[in-house]
């Protein structure tokens, strides 16, 4: 049997999936031990035990100044911002994207602006957002929306345009109105694509969130990373980066599980990551 036709079973798939992570940890441990052997006070590559102790204090030892558990406080603040921002982006994507994909006049009016706006580097808009919205939550959420909504809108609009014309003609033949065609033909076919666009938007959303928190915030995962970097506290920075990665991974898996459960017919068409 050709190699391209061989598929690993579940146990081997899990092992192969874990292998790169295990290799990364092994390489880090070896490098950390080598640096600490030369300089026990080295802070660039702290040992796993040192990072574990630091994270234990962040997660389970109340802060001496305010009595709060900093890891969970930062996590809740960041998750609230990113979920709100992505939720707004998803609503904009469904409304504007459907208008562009369904109505020719909507496409003519909105497509050029959306295409141009999506090319603007969102980070360059951050100072404008701070001036207009202040240094509070609105500016941070706004940056996430600016950074993710345009691409999601274009994705939904393109998916609307890719719906087979035959389905629309059949609905028109049966006497369906424009509203009925939108709700019974377009939306059911678009929702799985919208969830996929939301998953893709997770990556830039976290980037913009951390950037905004680093510049102007008093809590959040990005804020904590940039706060402790002045002390070279790699025992906190590295676990925080790993924690952000884990949160993003879990959010992606939850969206994927929701998509497979709600739109099972879509996933029968082929495998998806």
Kindly describe this structure.
With 273 residues, the protein is mostly helical. It has two domains: 45 residues, no CATH class; 214 residues, MetI-like fold (Orthogonal Bundle). Helices cover 78% and strands 0% of the residues. It is built from eleven helices and no strands. Helix 3 packs parallel to helix 6 and helix 6 packs antiparallel against helix 8. It is globular. It starts with 9 loop residues before the first helix and ends in a 6-residue tail after the last helix. The mean pLDDT is 89.
Question: Could you outline the blueprint of secondary structure elements for this entry?
Answer:
Layout (H helix, E strand, L loop, with lengths): L9 H29 L9 H13 L9 H33 L1 H14 L4 H12 L3 H25 L3 H9 L4 H38 L5 H8 L5 H29 L1 H4 L6
Helix pairs in contact: 2-10, 3-4, 3-6, 3-8, 3-9, 5-6, 6-8, 8-9, 8-10, 9-10
Compact description:
The chain has 273 residues and is mainly α. It is 78% helix and 0% strand.
User: Which architecture of the largest domain per CATH?
Assistant: Orthogonal Bundle
Question: What's the CATH C level of the largest domain?
Answer: Mainly Alpha
Name the CATH superfamily assignment of the largest domain.
MetI-like
**Sequence stretches where pLDDT stays below 50 over 5 or more residues:** none
The fraction of residues in strands falls at: under 5%
How far apart the termini lie comes to 25 Å
- Could you describe the largest sheet, including whether it forms a barrel? none
Overall tally of domains: 2
Structural class designation: mainly alpha
**N-to-C SSE series?**
HHHHHHHHHHH
Using the CA coordinates, give the radius of gyration. Answer: 23 Å
Q: Could you give the count of β-strands? A: 0
- Average predicted local confidence, pLDDT: 89
Shape: globular
Helicity range: over 70%
